[in-house]
Amino acid sequence: MTKIRTAVFPVAGLGTRFLPATKAMPKEMLTVVDKPVIQYVVDEAREAGIEHFIFVTGRNKTVIADHFDVQFELEATLSERGKTAELDALRADLPKPGQYSFTRQQEPLGLGHAVWCARHLINDNPFALLLPDMLMPWEPGCLAQMVDMYEQTGGNIISVEEVEKDQVCKYGIVGVGEDVGDGFRVNSMIEKPKPEAAPSNLFISGRYILQPEIMELLGSHERGAGNEIQLTDAMIRLSKEVPFYGYRFPGRSFDCGSKTGFLAANVYYALRRPDIEPEFREILKTVI
Length: 288
Ligand code: G1P
What we know:
The chain is of the alpha/beta class.
């Protein structure tokens, strides 16, 4: 079985929900405590054994590439001032040379189209896909657990989590078949259904392991919900040929694509930081 060494990060979205913050800055660079959102997701991928990180970007996103590059002047200044802890932390975030690739999605045609833009870079191998809006704090990370499961099952795996019935129309929803290892066989999928059409209350929560055949299906550029090229629609077609499994993420994810999810993520991560938690908890009490 081919190991999962490559991950795709679709980061071309305009981030209109966060205007004016995202007028000149990509939404993936919004900060949760003191790290950009994208750094958390890249760290999760690295922990899962990913060695090649593919970013599908768009206009105004070059700062993401800069973030994962050496910042020579900054490093020199930190070194001169003896700030070794800060310097070590910066260096720990960096990829090894040649591990990162960038390609562009020139038009906002949907998640399926963004993934398809990476087709020449995945090199006909199975790959992981991580939606950077979704922060999924857990140890070991969600993708690492999915990679463990993949080594038993092969096929395709998607992370799922429970959502309130009235929220199913915001997500891809899966139907639950028989148990397989730590997960289950997915027997149906539907993108952004009405509550009465949803096969369960389990939503596709933003981590995927996919076989490369998905690219061919995405290449037909069929439009789905919201007139976008939907990844879920290509997955439905692929599931007729190869199995799809659901992995129930045991933690709770934070949707940083929404203002309240992003704010909740900041509170959650801050309360788990020993250097911030005591003072922050006291301040929170006075604010609430
Ligand atoms: C995308 C996927 C959807 C998934 C969601 C998770 O939707 O199409 O299946 O549940 O991400 O955030 P989007 O948020 O791009 O509308």
